[in-house]
Amino acid sequence: MQTRHYQLLARTGYFGLLILIPVWHLWLSPPALNISPWLVTCIWFIPLLFPLRGILQSNPYTYAWSSFLTLFYLMHSIVILMSEPDELILASIELLLAGFFLTGDIYFAKYRGRELGLSIRKKKSS
């Protein structure tokens, strides 16, 4: 049962980011510079599509490696929090969703891997 909770947490963060990124960069706060909002959206949205299939199939390996991907969204939100006071709410939401995604990824991969008998460590021979 614990595994399902972490999977739900990870999926909430993941699908939340999938929704937040285009809404943020296309409608709520498009880039102020002479940069296309579509380009910025693609830069932040496309990497999120790589783990989609594995997340939908509940593959613990996908959850494990997608935690590395999540770090970019954590860093992005922290940088925005520190440098753009106008985007405090959006960056806070991104930080929260990325935190959910990262926490859920780590623990779902751990517990689901144990359920499936997967292990990184070599078993000691008796």
Descriptive labels:
single chain, 126 residues, mainly alpha, 5 helices, elongated
Sketch the major β-sheet: none
Cα end-to-end separation = 32 Å
Subunit arrangement of the protein: single chain
Let me know the average pLDDT: 92
Backbone shape: elongated
Blueprint (SSEs and pairs):
Blueprint (H helix, E strand, L loop, with lengths): L1 H27 L8 H13 L2 H5 L3 H24 L4 H29 L10
Helix pairs in contact: 1-2, 1-5, 4-5
Structure description:
The protein has 5 helices and no strands. The protein is mostly helical and 126 residues long. The protein is elongated, with a radius of gyration of 17 Å. The two termini are 32 Å apart. 26% of the residues are buried.
TL;DR of this structure?
By secondary structure, the chain is an all-alpha fold. Helix content is 78%, strand content 0%.
